[in-house]
Each structure stands twice: as structure tokens, then as C-alpha cells.
Specification:
Layout: H1 2-5, H2 14-23, E1 26-31, H3 37-47, E2 55-60, H4 63-76, E3 85-89, E4 92-94, E5 101-105, H5 106-115, E6 122-127, H6 135-148, E7 163-168, H7 173-179, E8 185-188, E9 195-198, H8 213-227, E10 232-236, H9 240-255, E11 271-276, H10 282-289, E12 297-302, E13 315-320, E14 323-330, E15 335-342, H11 345-353, E16 361-365, H12 369-374, H13 390-398, H14 415-427, H15 439-444, H16 451-462, H17 466-477, H18 488-504, H19 510-522, H20 527-534, H21 538-559, H22 576-585, E17 589-592, E18 598-600, E19 607-610, E20 625-633, E21 637-645, H23 647-651, H24 656-659, H25 662-670, H26 675-697
Parallel strand pairs: 1-7, 1-8, 2-5, 2-6, 3-5, 6-7, 9-16, 10-12, 10-13, 11-12, 13-16, 19-21
Antiparallel strand pairs: 3-4, 14-15, 17-18, 17-20, 18-19, 20-21
Helix pairs in contact: 3-4, 5-6, 8-9, 13-14, 14-25, 16-17, 16-22, 17-19, 17-21, 18-19
The structure holds adenosine-5'-diphosphate (ADP) and magnesium ion.
EC number: 3.6.4.13
Enzyme class: hydrolase
Keywords: ATP-binding, Helicase, Hydrolase, mRNA processing, Nucleotide-binding
Length: about 700
């Protein structure tokens, strides 16, 4: 395998690259996707002995990419995954004392900075896939610039200077270099072959809301199979359910082929259909990279993960749906939601490019020229400009970045997004009126969960009933546990089982259902069988068990400190779970207005409906007030995972949604803390500590 990697474009530049990394604090590396940046550069640096000073850390915006690439590199270095080469993603740490090359999500590195601001255990940090412009990578870029761009300070808190490598698949390298004190740019020259692109006729600007694109994608992929010469196909779709649906349809069609008459290229007599999406089991993912058997054409149906994060060899044809599933802040409901939106033109070019790595290729776009011109933006908007900033702003504040408006952002988020985040943090008591992090905020930042859920969990812990919330938080952190079969009869059967699970709790509350499913499965003799009988995803539940343990460990560590909040509860015990939920979800309160319509109370006053998957669906008449976990926007706005509450429980919390003066928070946010002020503050603190010590002496 090592010899195979010698054919990668990066190989010829090995020595120069190692030198370039050694020579400066920051280095930007660019090169076509598939040139070997992600898998090879960390190995080169390790071979050059750099890892003797500390771990080589490589960040990825996507969880699957971190895992898959680590597997590959462990294989290339002939070691067991988790030993010399390991990975860490949220709730899954596969590293050890021996790990010298560590792949991880950008979110994980951000959490590490909280515990160790100077990243003292690393010799090199490589931020990979920077062109994706994920929120966490953007924040990391700003933080690393802030901490390490002053050469005098680059060894602060460390015994040797940290090296930072920023990798990007083309695009924006000048901007990156300028941002990082005009650092050098290393370009890996690569050869690409021409890709002919053709537009379709079926999907135009009017089809943005419809799901007809799945059928169209299948039709075109099938046409490629029957009328094009041998070569593998890569289909870009949006998400797991769309991909599974498309694979089913393709499979059906492929069954009907008579290879003697129906296909152009007589050397092809079979189609191997493989899905590829984020939450897929990793052993299944490995198949994707294997060459197909002789005379068989491989067709991979993937999310955007195959656009730059993972490179599959042998792809000659691309089928591009023109859509992507993206997390966007929805101002209609005031929350982040996953939406299917048209990709940008630059993204479309990137997708097409995947067909031209080893020879000339073809890209079939299912959309027409008008869609390209009218519906597709030039570039993808960076995540920092379109999603909620609450969690990262809390992280920044905990790192001592008080002025979050003038933080060095590669692209600034809109000020109102920052204000919105400050407001939410204030509502959750994570910061005070002057914008400073509270004790509660310091506890909250320790949990890799969304702030509302963390707030509810901490409330429960302070009332000593964390056992009610820990499983719920875990269940909400894994993929959907309820199986939704495609076949209508099976769907009915699954619905019936799920309804039975909900009524076991006796309280008709989706959070309580999650709790009850968790325990029922855990205490069962045959948990996997129990899941099968009840149409529950065993794999998802298994992860929930592990997540619960990890959350419990974090909580235990915090509870051991003497200042962990303790409260007493004088209400009805059976209301405990719901009362705790209110503390974290009062920003998601809705009140029934007429019929089955609810109105949210967060100032947006959106009209929402209860989602059919909820146990409360069709029970609306008996409800007045509810809190909910998230929303799904289709032609209607649906609330999902719902819990009935009483007005008295949120009465005192609701005014918080309106009382806060964002200008007050923002004025503070604008106030610059000078180095001098900081020094004064530090010496005051030191003096205080000193006087405490002397008091102890007495
Ligand atoms: P880059 O980061 O520059 O896009 P990579 O280092 O990801 O490039 O990929 C280099 C080569 O390694 C590609 O030819 C790719 O097909 C191969 N490769 C990467 N991961 C795997 C894997 N899990 N299995 C097989 N081949 C892989
Ligand atoms: Mg890469």
C-alpha cells in the first residue's frame, strides 16, 4: 500500500513540504481533492520525527471523514486503529497513550482548547477541509490566529512553537494566507482531466420545493449504466432517507435489465449499488473504496461527503442532483433547521471534478440551465453566517474572548446573529447582564450538547434527579431511534408498536417515551431482539447507552466540586422531568390557539402543528401549553418531541424572553478589554489568591 501512495501527486513534494511546515508557524496547503493531503501529509510529518515533540492533530468538519481517514491511515502505517493512529469524534474516542497521528472533528479540537488553550500536547495542528467553512473550523482559525500569530507569544504555555497547517481544496488561498499573517502557500500541482457537463431538462427553478429530484436522479443514473462505457458512477443526493429511497428504486430497475440487449457496453454485466452517508456503520463504508468485481459497474449514491472529504477511485461519471441538506437558521421559526437547498455553482463544479481524476469524465446534471442561473448562488455561504452561534460564543467567552464582535473572523457573522446568541446565553443564565460568563455557564460549556438541553440537565442534577434527564439527553444526541419502514403495511405495524411504547409511560410525553424506551431496552435480556420487535434502531440505542455513560461521567466530575449548585424541589415528584425540561426549553414554548394550531411564545409567534410522529398528535384538544425539542419545516411548521406543561411552570421564565435588552449585552460585547486592563485584573486576582492563602495560614 505504501508503494501505491507513491503515485499520489503529493509524493514528489514530500521533502519540500516537510521543510515548509518546519519553516513557519502558519502554512496553507492546497491541492486538488485526492492528491493525498489528508492521508499523506500527517504521515510525512510523523516520519520526519516531528511527532516526537507532540501529537500531530488533524481536524475534519465531518465525523465520518475523521473515522474513515483514520482507518485508512492506520492501515497504511500497518498499525491497529487507536494505537499510533487514532480518531476522536463526539462521544467516540478511539485514541490511546501511543497515538501520534490523531484525526478528529473540529468540534473536538475546540473542546480541547477549552481545557488546554495552548494545545501543549500537539506539535502540529492541521485544519483540514477549510474550504468547507464549517462553523467550528472558522472559529478555530480565528483562535489559532489570535494565540499564535505573534511570534513572541508562539511558545506561550508550551516548550516549543506550535505549527499550524491549513489545508484547502483550491479556492480562497490568498484570503487564507492574508488572514494568517501573510503566511506561505504550498500548492501541490495536480493534473485533472476534462469533464464534460450536460444539463438536464426535468428540474427547473420551480421544482425547489418538490422531491421529484430523487426519481430524476435514479432515471439518469440508470441511463448512464445502460448507455455509457464502463466506469463507476457517483451520484450526489441529499441525505440518508433520500439515498436509501434512490438505492431501492435503482435496485428495482437494475433487476429488469437484460444485459444481452439493454446495455451499450458489452463488457458490463452488473450493477453494484452502494449508499454512503454520515450515520452509516463504518464497516459498510469500507466497501465503498473497494474496486468492484470484474465486469461490474459500481454506483455510489452519496451525500456531499464524497465531494471533497472522501475520494473514491475509479469514478468516471457523476450524476448531480443539484441539492444539498444544509443547517440554516430559519428566521420564520427562530431556530436552526436542516433544509434541502440548491447547491452553489462552485459546489457543482467541485462535484463535477470528481469524474476527472484519472481520465476524462462526464457529469450529468439533472437540473436545467435556468436552474443553474436563477436558483444556484455563486458560492456557498459559510456556516458561521447562517447558523446559531450560541454554543461557540459561550466557548469563546469561556476562553476569555470577551469581545465576541471584534473577534478575528475570516468572514464576520451578521451582528444580529451574535446578539441573538448573547440573548440566548443570558436567558439560560450562562452569562450575566454585563456579558460575563456565570458559574452556570462554566458548567454548561463542559457538555457537548445544545445549550437548552444542557440547561435542563444541570437543573435536574441540582435537584438530584439527573437519572431522568441523562437518558433523554443521550437519546436526543443520537440518530432517530424509531424505525420508519418504507412499506405502508409495515409502517402501520411500526406505528402501532411505537404508540404502545408511548402509552406505557402513562403520561403521553415524547421525552418520557424516550426515557422509557431507554430503560426497557437496557433491562431486557435480549436488547437487540427487543429492538427488532419494537421497530427501534438497535445501533442508535447502543450509541445512546454509551453517550449516557459519557454524559454521566462529565456530570460526576463537575458534581465533585464543592460549588456545584444544589436546589430543593417542593412540587409533585411526578412533575419533576417536565419541570426540568421547562428550565431548558422555555425558549421553545407553544400555546394552543385554535383547533390543532399552536403559537410559539418566543416573540416570533409562529403557527406550528404537532408532528404526526408525536404521541400527542391527535390529542391536541386536551392540551394548552407544550414545550418541544425541535421543528421540521415542510409546507407547515411541525414541532417534534413534545411535552405538555402547565403555564405556572414557565410563567416566571417567559418574561426573560422579552426583558433582555440586547443593546446592553452588545455594548458590553463591544467594550475592548486592553492588555493593560487585563494585567491589572490578573495582578488583582493574584493578590486576592495571596490574601486567601494567608487567611488560611491564620
Ligand atoms: P486529499 O486529502 O488531497 O483530497 P486523500 O489523502 O484523501 O486526498 O486521498 C488520497 C488517496 O487515498 C485517494 O486516491 C483516495 O482514493 C485514497 N483513499 C483515501 N481514503 C481511502 C480509503 N478509506 N480506502 C481506500 N483508499 C482511500
Ligand atoms: Mg482531504
Amino acid at each position: 500500500m505504501m508503494s501505491e501512495s507513491k503515485y499520489l501527486p503529493i509524493y514528489k513534494h514530500k521533502a519540500k513540504l516537510i521543510q515548509a511546515v518546519k519553516d513557519s508557524t502558519f502554512l496553507v496547503v492546497t491541492g486538488e481533492t485526492g492528491s493525498g493531503k489528508t492521508t499523506q501529509l500527517p504521515q510525512y510529518l510523523h516520519e520526519a520525527g516531528i511527532s516526537k515533540d507532540g501529537t500531530i492533530g488533524v481536524t475534519q468538519p465531518r465525523r465520518v471523514a475523521a473515522i474513515t481517514v483514520a482507518q485508512r491511515v492506520a492501515q497504511e502505517m500497518k498499525c491497529t486503529l487507536g494505537r499510533e493512529v487514532g480518531y476522536q469524534v463526539r462521544f467516540d474516542d478511539c485514541t490511546s497513550q501511543d497515538t501520534v497521528v490523531k484525526y478528529m472533528t473540529d468540534g473536538c479540537l475546540l473542546r480541547e482548547i477549552l481545557a488546554d488553550p495552548f494545545l501543549s500536547k500537539y506539535s502540529v495542528v492541521i485544519l483540514d477541509e477549510v474550504h468547507e467553512r464549517s462553523l467550528n473550523t472558522d472559529i478555530l482559525l480565528g483562535l489559532l490566529k489570535k494565540v499564535f500569530s505573534d511570534p513572541a507569544k508562539s511558545t506561550r504555555g508550551r516548550s516549543f512553537p506550535l505549527k499550524v497547517v491549513v489545508m484547502s481544496a483550491t479556492l480562497e488561498t490568498d484570503k487564507l494566507s492574508a488572514f494568517l499573517s501573510d503566511c506561505p502557500v504550498f500548492q501541490i500541482p495536480g493534473r485533472t482531466y476534462p469533464v464534460t457537463c450536460t444539463f438536464g431538462s426535468a428540474v427547473g427553478p420551480k421544482d425547489i420545493e418538490s422531491t421529484g429530484y430523487i426519481k430524476e436522479v435514479v432515471k439518469i443514473a440508470f441511463d448512464v449504466h445502460t448507455s455509457e462505457m464502463a466506469g463507476d458512477v457517483l451520484v450526489f443526493l441529499t441525505g440518508q432517507s433520500e439515498i436509501e429511497r434512490a438505492c431501492d428504486l435503482l435496485y428495482e430497475k437494475a433487476e429488469s435489465i437484460d444485459y444481452r440487449y439493454d446495455v451499450q457496453d458489452q463488457t458490463v454485466d452488473g450493477l453494484l449499488i452502494l449508499p454512503l452517508y454520515g450515520s452509516m456503520p463504518t464497516d459498510q463504508q469500507r466497501q465503498i473504496f473497494q474496486p468492484p468485481p470484474p465486469r461490474i459497474r459500481k454506483c455510489v449514491v452519496a451525500t456531499n461527503i464524497a465531494a471533497t472529504s472522501l475520494t473514491i477511485d475509479g469514478i468516471k461519471y457523476i450524476v448531480d442532483s443539484g441539492f444539498v441538506k444544509q443547517l440554516n437558521h430559519n428566521s420564520r421559526v427562530g431556530m436552526d433547521i436542516l433544509e434541502v437547498v440548491p447547491i452553489s455553482k462552485s459546489e457543482a463544479q467541485q462535484r463535477a471534478g470528481r469524474a476527472g481524476r484519472t481520465s476524462a469524465g462526464k457529469c450529468f446534471r439533472i437540473y436545467n440551465k435556468e436552474f443553474w442561473e436563477k436558483s444556484m448562488p455563486e458560492y456557498t455561504v459559510p456556516e458561521i453566517q447562517r447558523t446559531s452561534l450560541t454554543a461557540v460564543i459561550l466557548t469563546l467567552k469561556c476562553l476569555g474572548v470577551h469581545d465576541v464582535i471584534r473577534f478575528p473572523y475570516l468572514d464576520c457573522p451578521e451582528e444580529r446573529f451574535i446578539l441573538e446568541a448573547l440573548k440566548q446565553l443570558y436567558q439560560f443564565d450562562a452569562i450575566d447582564r454585563t456579558g460575563r460568563v456565570t458559574h452556570l455557564g462554566e458548567l454548561m460549556v463542559e457538555f457537548p450538547l445544545q445549550p437548552g438541553l444542557t440547561r435542563a440537565l444541570l437543573k435536574a442534577a441540582s435537584l438530584d434527579c439527573q437519572d431522568l434527564l441523562l437518558p433523554v439527553a443521550a437519546m436526543l444526541s443520537v440518530e432517530n431511534i424509531f424505525i420508519r419502514p418504507g412499506h405502508p403495511d409495515k409502517q402501520k405495524e411500526a406505528d402501532k408498536k411505537h404508540r404502545a411504547l408511548a402509552s406505557r409511560t402513562g403520561s403521553m410525553n415524547d421525552f418520557a417515551t424516550l426515557l422509557s424506551v431507554f430503560h426497557a431496552c437496557k433491562s431486557s435480556d435480549r436488547p437487540s431482539g427487543w429492538c427488532k420487535d419494537n421497530w427501534i434502531h438497535w445501533r442508535a440505542l447502543k450509541s445512546a447507552f454509551s453517550v449516557e455513560t459519557q454524559l454521566r461521567e462529565i456530570l460526576l466530575r463537575l458534581q465533585q466540586k464543592s460549588d456545584f449548585p444544589v436546589e430543593t424541589f417542593d412540587g409533585n415528584k411526578s412533575e419533576l422531568l417536565r419541570r426540568c425540561l421547562c428550565t431548558g426549553y422555555f425558549t421553545n414554548v407553544a400555546r394552543r390557539s385554535v383547533g390543532k394550531v399552536f403559537c410559539t411564545m418566543d416573540g416570533h409567534g409562529s403557527m406550528v402543528h404537532i408532528h404526526p410522529s408525536s404521541a400527542l398528535f391527535d390529542q391536541e384538544d386536551e392540551l394548552n401549553w407544550v414545550v418541544f425539542h425541535d421543528v421540521l419545516v415542510t409546507s407547515r411548521v411541525y414541532i417534534r418531541t413534545v411535552c405538555p406543561i402547565r403555564y405556572e411552570w414557565v410563567k416566571d421564565l417567559l418574561p426573560k424572553l422579552h426583558e433582555v435588552d440586547v443593546y446592553e449585552l452588545s455594548n458590553v460585547a463591544r467594550e475592548e478589554v486592553t492588555d493593560d486592563e487585563m494585567k491589572q485584573w490578573e495582578s488583582r486576582e493574584a493578590a486576592k489568591r495571596q490574601s486567601e492563602v494567608s487567611k488560611e495560614d491564620v
